[in-house]
Amino acid sequence: MKCLFCQFNNTDVIETRVSENRATIRRRRSCPKCKKRYTTYERVEELPILVIKRDDRRERFDREKLLRGILKAVGKTTVTADQVEEIVTNIESEVTRKGNTEIPSTEIGDIIAGALKNIDKVAYIRFASVFKRFVDVEEFEKELRRLS
Fold this sequence. Notes:
alpha+beta; about 45% helix
């Protein structure tokens, strides 16, 4: 694999771990040329998943877009990048396991909200405020009361 930093063509694998759900392999790599280290993730390429948006449009599932959205919600909280990666991997696995190639965006949102609720309440509220489209302070307060 090519080094992220210096583009050297032959990096070393220092450590390999299989994720808990056995869907992803995490590899720590080191470049013999620049001596920098980084992590890569390996997973099986699966059938394309389409997301059914609220207005019934279909959009190809974009793992990176989902990661970016969750990372916005979890910024400056205790949620780790590995936990976010696990949430996204679980969504992909659940859709594949069901044999579906389509999933409503609301179902994806519910899965993310449920996972964040168990991990970090602040991240959950940030995500829920956008996902559930709170329009006024009362809805926000009602959701906060449910968490207590």
